[in-house]
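Treating backbone geometry as a discrete language has practical consequences that deserve illustration. In the encoding step, the backbone of a single protein was reduced to a row of integers, each denoting a local shape. The amino acid sequence and the backbone structure tokens for this protein are reproduced below.
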Amino acid sequence: MVFLQPLFEWIESMFGETINHFPLIELIFYSIDQTLFYFIFWFIGRSIILYVKKRKNKPIKWRREIIFNVFIFYVLLLIHLTVFREENSIDNVSIVLRPLSEINWIPFVETAKLTQGTSLFDYYYNLYGNILWFVPMGFGAAYLMKKKHSFLRALFIGIAVSFSIEAMQFLFYTGISDIDDLIFNTLGTIIGIGLFEISQWVYKKWQIRKTL
């Protein structure tokens, strides 16, 4: 780790033996650390673009810009959590040719198998984790796509990102590509879009009351 190693070592020394599934905590720390590293390069490039726009007197919507950058950070984090994890990174992975039959194409079969394990943690994380991780995807994409057909556009972004993750896991052999993940990710995206629509409705009601 580049940024979070001291903090992680402290947490590991304090709670490493008491927290069940501590490797998940380690994965999250590693993923955030790697995301911070690559986000710096994104932020520098984005700052140059904004500087050029400002020099040309083009308007910059700063609230949207902040949310856009948070969304990019979230997507990068999602990719590191699911594809470039543990010892894998963008620098050392390579394409591994495998038959498409290794993909779990039949829905809910592998998820159902997880209920037969010694612990239900893997089942709950696979089901609810895949849904919850994509709720911000739906919310953020819906905000950034505040135009006509925003629901379909935001849903397409969620499905495209999920599909890309499954494809990278398969190509780089860094995970198991499963149709269930795509289904649960899509459901999380829909929930996120729904939460955005509700927040917009509440905000409009509040604005109307404010003017009365």
About this structure: The chain has two domains: 1-93, 99-212.
